[in-house]
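Shipment paperwork, digital attachment
Item: protein structure file
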Amino acid sequence: MGIDLSIIWFTIIIFAILMYIVMDGFDLGIGLIFPFIKDPVERDMMVNTVAPVWDGNETWLILGGAALYGAFPLAYAVIADALSIPITLMLFGLIFRGVAFEFRFKATEHHRPFWDKAFIGGSFLATFMQGISVGTILNGIQVTGRVFTGDVMGWLSPFPLFCGVGLVLAYALLGSSWLIMKTQHALHDKMSQLTKPLTIALLIVIAIISIWTPLAHNAISERWFTRPNLYWFLPVPVLVIICGLGILKAVKRRADYAPFLLTLGLIFLGFTGLGISLWPNIIPPSISIWQAASPPQSQGFMLVGGLLIIPVILMYTFWSYYVFRGKISEDEGYH
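Attachment content:
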């Protein structure tokens, strides 16, 4: 029995996307919750918690996109056509957010409010478009032969837009729980207060999406609710509830690390549910990873490079977070 390179590359892409969601999620989440904090000193502290590491977080997005292009070119081509507008807007949001991130520290007091608004707007645009993209893929993309034949504006439908709102809430929760872990005193208390409604809102959104998806797609309904799959997958929603309640209890007892770690668990479970709904299709509802795959020779050649570069990325990511571990204070800055 030979090695299935398509499964290996699918796993690598899923891992890269999950790493991006986790790491750039709380980064973008800080921009999303910026409007709730008015004190300029506290805003600087919020940004300084990610200043040493934020630009490295997007390495995972580049890795995932490059791997999709090389290992599953059909999927890359179809998704690029179907989501050309959301992806372009997402990139504009990421670029504008990055520029604002740097410029707000160097701007005069008169111009800083503009860059703060740009930071908020770029973070929201990038996050919302990522959620819309996920919702559109989950909804299904129309393909005839090997060509996208659906509506280029198909992403402007209720389910993808609702998924966009859901991801905004998820990233905002990642941001607030990250700041609980990294800050102290008044800002820590404000983030604890904000985390409670964000957790409740996200749980409601997850419940709605979990009901909406199987009702709209019979194939997904059969996968989740037929035996023996029902017994295998039942722990996912149960663990989601446990994580959500755990976050609320951790915030109540003023825990530092538990809210963020439980939020990571919540994000992982939501991502797992998405994977269960889609597998083995990379372009729902009908194109599997094997149908979209490049030749084994190409995948094998890429895998050599991937196995070299991925450990390097993991090592410098771990080291950067390790060096800048611990809580931040008002007198610390990285610009």
